[in-house]
Amino acid sequence: MKNVIVADDDPTARKILLRMLQPDYQAAAFADGRDALDYFLENGADIIITDLKMPRLDGMELLRRVMEVNPEVIVFVVTGYAAVDTAVNAMKMGAHDYLAKPFNPEDVLVRLERALKEKNLERQCTSYRQKQDLEAQRNPIITNNSKMQQTMDLARRSARTDSTILIQGETGVGKELMVRQIHRWSPRNEHPLVPVNCSALAEGIMESELFGHEKGAFTGADSRRIGFFEMADKGTIFLDEIGTADNRFQVKLLRVLQDHIIYRVGSPKAIRIDARVIAATNQNLEQEAREGRFRSDLYYRLSVVTISIPPLRERMDDVPLLADHFLAKYRHINPTVEALTPESYDVLLGYDYPGNVRELENIIERAMIIETTEMLRPESLLIHQTGTAKGRPAIKRPGAAPDTFDMKEVEKKHILHVLAACEGKKIEAARMLGINKTTLWRKMKKYGIDNL
């Protein structure tokens, strides 16, 4: 139950407000701002309703003190009349809204409930941003492959626009990671990225999940719910596994893309949505559309920009780089392991990775659990060398011969990539590389890397 503090020197107003708030809220009422502030400092509150003119401590001063302690508290100021200038000043100081006397009980309760919903949505958005930043730091897109770098260039250019993007690629190539990077590059990066697994949307709850619902819209709808599209307003909504969406889902999505409006279940009111849509699939959606298994009109709406991520077997020159990255990422599992043996690189370069980058990561993580020496050996990888895939040129391990990788060059490029991903912040880069800052400085000096 939410806690509400009422501060008003008018006993009739206090009595009316307490009657309105109970039993839905736990409310405490005070005749002046000083007592209300003392109670708040000791007990906290979710909402404060305060008159402006009170003895000892007026409403504006109470508002200022509360905002200093906890700016997340929702404050409503009470005026004897709808004084716009007073309300504006209060809201500039952090008040959520104002209530004009005489009170309309239904209006007051609706506005309190709406304020709580909006505050909850703000917290969710903040949580999404924090999670996205953390994931982006932990999982930078690492590549030296020319084809993958071209893909990244297209993603970077597309990120600056509001165009819908379709990302295609096999399972495990890093489609969600690409979406998160596009969102970080976009002007929308201060707003949420909301991921939706289309294959997990059951028909009975699809509309409620996507568009939200009003209280009482159906049995069990005890309160209003904000849907995924509304949560993603001004940000990005990521529709994963879009190829699995049934026809009913496709029709509704097409309408949203065309009109940019949604309707909560149980409400006739249109809500305008400004959310950038990025979809991803491991299917050939163009072929699915040609053969009638996916709506062609929706396919063309989604594929304004199509980004195809190549499978790992087509960019094997990234394998040593990725293997070193994952070894550093999971070094906390087994801090004694320093590096992979040359033979381990041979094994990794001889495998075709049907599970792509995700499989390579799992291989290294598992090997870190198994390994008992200071070097990661082939027997800990638990995969068998399969030779070179048909049609793919042979790639030898780093340092195996003069005509292939130079391990020092690989390490230098890896350090440069991580420094760029961390925007030159050496402490953060050292953490991602699994080394201390002094070691990073020495390596930068050794490889002639400028002090970014």
Automatic annotation (TrEMBL):
4-aspartylphosphate PTM positions: D51
GO terms of molecular function: ATP binding; sequence-specific DNA binding
Keyword ATP-binding appears in the UniProt entry: yes
PROSITE patterns xref list: RESPONSE_REGULATORY, SIGMA54_INTERACT_1, SIGMA54_INTERACT_2, SIGMA54_INTERACT_3, SIGMA54_INTERACT_4
Domain Response regulatory: 3-116
Claim: Nucleotidyltransferase is one of the keywords in the record: no
A Pfam family it matches: AAA_lid_14
InterPro entries: AAA+_ATPase (IPR003593), AAA_lid_NorR (IPR058031), CheY-like_superfamily (IPR011006), Homeodomain-like_sf (IPR009057), HTH_Fis (IPR002197), P-loop_NTPase (IPR027417), Sig_transdc_resp-reg_receiver (IPR001789), Sigma_54_int (IPR002078)
Swiss-Prot/TrEMBL GO biological process terms: phosphorelay signal transduction system; regulation of DNA-templated transcription
Sigma-54 factor interaction domain mapped to chain residues: 141-369
Keywords: ATP-binding, DNA-binding, Nucleotide-binding, Phosphoprotein, Transcription, Transcription regulation
SUPFAM superfamilies, sorted: CheY-like, Homeodomain-like, P-loop containing nucleoside triphosphate hydrolases
Name of the protein in question: Sigma-54-dependent Fis family transcriptional regulator
Organism name: Desulfolithobacter dissulfuricans
Organism lineage: Bacteria, Pseudomonadati, Thermodesulfobacteriota, Desulfobulbia, Desulfobulbales
